[in-house]
Design a protein that fits this description.
Blueprint: H1 14-30, E1 45-49, E2 52-53, E3 57-59, E4 65-66, H2 68-80, E5 87-91, H3 94-102, E6 108-109, E7 123-125, E8 130-138, E9 153-157, H4 161-169, E10 174-178, H5 181-189, E11 195-199, H6 200-209, E12 214-226, E13 229-231, H7 235-250, H8 253-261
């Protein structure tokens, strides 16, 4: 987990006092003065995310957060005046992210969270920055189409876009909720469920980790683009994020990060620099 490091300076000597002055000046330069974005801590943007949602947001072998959403938000925060030391990430179950924003535990949530009308009743979303596909991952060779899911046990991530879609469209399938993808994949591998419904990019990652799994069904999901989530009633923060997102798309940063984290996947024209 990335944490804000704080340094304590001694003022017992003039050298210590000078160190304090320089440290304070550096901190002030790293963040905007005052609290223009109404953050929980004026010096830091706190971000709720996930630690197992590769390639969007995950913890690496050193426990540091990385992934497309993480790197994109760090760039957004930098454009808002916050360096990497003043952006903290905390991993949670997906279903806890929106309640945590609504309850003012974090300033922002970043984990490829799809924008839906139901979610917008409780929180606000930035402009979209990602669209994609929903996938059915399985080791059952008989599952090739949606109709093959009839009577099967399908894993879904609690509170996710996939869960909402499955509850609406897979009415003849037994849906099994999981708090995170790792536990769902474990259940799939040990036979507790027949398939797992998740994001296409994550499904691709899992087929590389477990060669017995295949991405059997892909469903377009263009009506709920991912956005950064903020609590309601904070237009200053939302506007600043949207401006930074726009600039990241216009100068090619978004495209660079997308190609890095989603090699071979089609680019979304509306997120590319506009001439």
């Amino acid at each position: 987990m990335t944490r804000l490091s704080r340094r304590v300076f001694s003022v017992a000597t003039l050298a210590g006092l000078a160190g304090l002055t320089l440290g304070a000046a550096a901190a002030q330069a790293a963040t905007p003065p005052g609290n223009p974005y109404h953050l929980i801590d004026p010096t830091t943007i706190s971000v709720g995310t996930m630690d197992d949602a590769k390639p969007y947001a995950f913890a690496d072998a050193n426990g540091d957060f990385t992934g497309f959403d993480i790197e994109l938000f760090r760039d957004v925060a930098r454009r808002m005046g916050f360096d990497a030391k003043h952006v903290t990430f905390t991993g949670q179950d997906f279903s806890a992210l929106i309640p945590s924003i609504a309850n003012n535990r974090f300033d922002v949530a970043a984990a490829a969270i799809g924008t839906t009308a139901a979610r917008k009743k409780f929180v606000d979303f930035s402009n979209g920055y990602l669209v994609g596909f929903l996938s059915v991952l399985t080791n059952d060779p008989s599952i090739k189409t949606v109709s093959d899911l009839t009577g099967k046990r399908l894993g879904i991530l609690q509170g996710s876009l996939e869960a909402l879609y499955a509850q609406k469209h897979f009415t003849k399938t037994s849906l099994v909720e999981f708090p995170d993808n790792n536990s769902a994949i474990a259940a799939l591998n040990n036979g507790t469920i027949d398939a797992h419904f998740l994001d296409y990019e994550q499904a691709k990652q899992e087929t590389q980790r477990f060669h017995g799994l295949k991405d059997a069904i892909n469903i377009p999901s263009f009506d709920a683009p991912a956005g950064f989530v903020v609590r309601k009633g904070n237009p200053a923060l939302l506007d600043a994020i949207n401006k930074a997102l726009h600039d990241a798309m216009q100068d090619g940063t978004w495209e660079k990060l997308y190609v890095k984290w989603f090699p071979g996947s089609p680019l979304t024209p509306q997120y590319l620099p506009q001439k």
